[in-house]
Amino acid sequence: MMTVGDVDETRNGFDTSKMLTEWETGTVSDLPDGRTQHTFVMEAVDKEIEIAPGVMFPAWTYNGKVPGPALRATEGERRKIVFRNYDSQPHSIHFHGIHSARMDGVPGAGVVNPGEEFVYEFDAKPFGCHFYHCHALPLKRHIHKGLYGLFVVDPDPARHAEHADVARSRLLGTPENAGWQELAMVMNAFDTNFDDENEVYAVNTVAHAYTKRPIRILRDKPVRIYLANAVEFDPINSFHLHGNFFDYFDQGTTLTPTSRTVDLITQCQGQRGILEFSFKDHEPGLYMFHAHQSEFAELGWMSMFEVVEQVA
Amino acid sequence: MNDVSSTQTITAAPSVPQPSRVALAWLILPLAVLALAITWLVTANPLRTFDNGAPPVENLTFERTVLSSDGIEILVRAGGSEPMTIAQVLVDDAYWQFAQEPSGPLARGATAWIRLPYPWVLGEAHAFKIITNTGATFEHEIAVAVPTPVSSVSMLSAQALLGVIVGIVPVAIGLMFYPALRGVGRNGMNFLLAMTVGLLAFLMIDAAGEAFDLAGESAAIFQGQAMVALAAAASFLLLIAAGRRGGTPAGLTLATFIALGIGLHNLGEGLAIGAAFAAGAAGLGTFLVLGFTIHNITEGIDIAAPMLKKRPPLWTFPALTLLAGGPAVLGLWIGSLAYAPQWSALALAIGAGAYLARSDGRGAAALLSWPVMAGLAFGVTFMYGTAMLVKV
Questions:
Q1: pLDDT in tens, chain B (392 residues)
Q2: Cβ separation of B135 and A4 shorter than 8 Å?
Q3: Residue A223 belongs to what domain range?
Q4: Which residues from A are below 8 Å from B87, CB to CB?
Q5: Do A193 and B88 touch (CB under 8 A)?
Q6: b/e map of A251-266 (b: 16 or more CB within 10 Å)?
Q7: Which DSSP symbol is given to A266?
Q8: Nearest residue of B to residue A193, measured between CA atoms
Q9: Is residue B369 part of a domain?
């Protein structure tokens, strides 16, 4: 059925309803070659978080949040990530993207010891819905303890003449993009007793958060979800939408869907993609979405959209 | 007895000083130091250097489950180093609505009922997992879900009937051998007595084993293993002390002791069977009940054997039957209504101690005679054989 009680999100320091739409775009500066550089500051801190009502988890976090901040930039921009490790364990940020070996965030190239700092620099490419996570060893533990997040690179419309309108709708800040309701979702899970099996599953950390507080969707506005799977121990996770079908862009690196008109997609560990759908021909009401592994759904990965009429 | 105590007085008198108020005043010193130590431990908290940041040790024991049309109720007992908090409850790997009564953190040794409106399925298995606020998990399984009997007259009378069949009837049948047993000669008598020793030795091992098994299921706070050993030792010493007041127990006294031991054994077994019924773990078939009955007939012979030399009054036979067999009925009732493994373990341990009390010092020469050896062997073999009918 459901978890009993409510999670104190104020104490957690992050709000599951706000997390859906909070994009971190960094501090912008101009480079000598005319390009813009986005600088992000990321800090590894350990923190006890409440992942289900009353259940505390000793997490490792980026900036005190699980998942870490949803980073967003435009294709071709320079990115600079200043990473400071305030935890007692060595950590790193390994970005899924195109970059040099030195910037890979693996042991020997960007794993940062406690109290130290490292700066990752690379160009944001390719465009798509990507993922970052700690790549210190042991890998399973460093990821499932909470060190992961979304890393979205928007397509540059100038580089994709054939689908410029699609690219513009994906580019944060454009009027076309403002016509969409965009949501950031990371499917994750927690092994509270450290037996290599997850006790709690969720989207954005808190079990049943969006069942208890459904995500409000305006009926007339199309929906775009940036979805990543950060679950450890289980090889596959999935996303199933009730009463509707969607187009799916696996890894988000194309401007045309990789799957059309589906109501269920699966993602292996670290896989991610973009979902696009609309409720404009639907009657208002509660529409479920959840992992179609019933086990995950009943362990917390169960959510609701509340479709409402456009507010005047 | 008098001799012994007077010698003790004479030899001890010079060395023991007369108790005086001055000597008693010395009690203050150790007590004051103890008080100081406690005060220091509480106020200065010198143990904080051992605080390595590890979460407190938690333990939770499932003592009882009740299945009804309203759902499932579980009685849990906490055994943590500090009060522990139940955060969520999973049934069959799904978070489920639950209510805890009383609510709030559970102190060491405290119990609480967890009530779950879960649509359980008749005859199937259900698994429970409790997650505490630290993320620790505790699991319990109902192997076969059946409705927990509620205390109705028909249920209690049905259980009484079962208790009579497995407890009272076999003892009565065993005692009916009495007239026939009186006719045997000296060797026959030795054979019979040795046989009962064999039977009781088997029962002692069986009861002690079961007691230790159940002790393992009970909450750590009860220290099951020590409890079983101490309860058995206490019952053994108590019966020996009570019995030896009038010399070595024999005849009716000995028969009464054996009946008492068997009664306690039957109480423990009744508790376990009743609880198994309640938990749905046992489907007692006719064959199983028959097995118990045959197995327990020897209990009657055990009681009869010591009384063969001198016939006791007739009323003692039904009295002994009730003493030995009656507790089975009581055990079934209690076991199905309010059960926790430690109570069953306790009853079985006391019974085991009582069996031990029976095996009094018998001459080594008598032990080596053929009738005695044969009797012992027959007794143990018979019990082992008939136990095969009932062990599942």
A1: 344 444 444 444 445 556 677 778 888 888 999 999 988 888 887 777 777 777 778 899 998 888 888 999 999 999 888 899 999 999 999 999 999 999 999 999 899 999 999 999 988 899 999 999 999 999 999 888 888 777 778 878 888 888 898 889 988 998 888 888 888 777 777 787 777 778 778 877 887 888 888 888 888 888 888 888 898 888 788 777 766 665 666 678 888 888 888 888 788 777 767 766 665 555 555 666 666 677 778 778 888 888 887 888 889 899 999 998 998 898 888 877 766 778 777 877 877 777 776 554 444 445 667 778 888 888 888 888 877 776 66
A2: no
A3: 181-308
A4: 52-55
A5: no
A6: bbbbbebbeeebeebe
A7: E
A8: B136
A9: yes
Residue B216 CA, distance from chain mean position? 12
Q: Which single residue is written with the structure tokens 């522990």?
A: B84
Contacts of A6 in chain B (CB under 8 A): none
Q: Which CATH number fits the domain that encloses residue A196?
A: 2.60.40.420
Contact A55 B97 (CB under 8 A): no
Amino acid B234 reads: A
| Same structural domain, B124 and B216 | no
Min distance A56 CA to chain B CA atoms (Å):
6
Q: Do B88 and A192 touch (CB under 8 A)?
A: no
Instruction: Kindly determine whether residue A207 and residue B95, on different chains, have CB atoms separated by under 8 Å.
Output: yes
**A234 inside 8 A of chain B by CB:** no
Q: What is the pTM of this model?
A: 0.78
End-to-end, the C-alpha distance of chain B in Å comes to: 50
Task: Output the six-digit token pair for B320.
Answer: 């002994």
What tokens appear for A118 in the block? 């490292």
CA B360, CA B236: separation in Å to the nearest integer? 11
Domain boundary among A177, A193, A220: A177
**Domain-embedded: residue A140:** yes
Contact A115, A83 (CB under 8 A): no
Number of Cβ pairs < 8 A linking chain A and chain B: 61
Q: Which of B142, B173, B208 is the C-terminal boundary of a domain?
A: B142
In a domain, B92, yes or no: yes
**Is residue A146 less than 8 Å (CB to CB) from chain B?**
no
- The Cα–Cα gap between A253 and A125 comes to 10
Q: Which of residues 15-74 of A touch B (CB under 8 A)?
A: 52-57
Radius of gyration of chain A (CA): 19
CA pair distance B32, A223, nearest whole angstrom? 75
Which residues constitute the domain of residue B166? Answer: 153-390
Domain identity same for A170 and A76: yes
* Any domain includes A4: no
Query: CA of A190: which chain B residue's CA is closest?
Result: B135
Choose the final residue of a domain: A157, A177, A197: A177
Q: How many angstroms separate the CA atoms of A143 and B19, rounded?
A: 72
Q: Are residues A19 and A85 in the same domain?
A: yes
**In sequence order, which residues have a C-beta less than 8 Å from that of residue A24 and are 6 or more positions away?**
A40, A69, A70, A71, A72
Cβ distance of B85 and A54 shorter than 8 Å: yes
Q: Which residues of B touch A299 (CB under 8 A)?
A: 90, 93-95
- Is the CB of A54 less than 8 angstroms away from the CB of B133? yes
Alpha-carbon distance A75 to nearest alpha carbon in chain B (angstroms): 42
Specify whether A17 is located in the same domain as A125: yes
The reply to whether B96 touches chain A by the CB within 8 Å rule is yes
Query: B-chain residues within 8 Å CB-CB of A1?
Result: 94-97
Task: Provide the domain count of chain A.
Answer: 2
Nearest to A298 among B85, B93, B97 (CB): B93
| Shortest distance, CA A187 to any CA of chain B (angstroms) | 18
Same domain, A103 and A214: no
Q: A87 with A33, same domain?
A: yes
Which ipTM score applies to this complex? 0.83
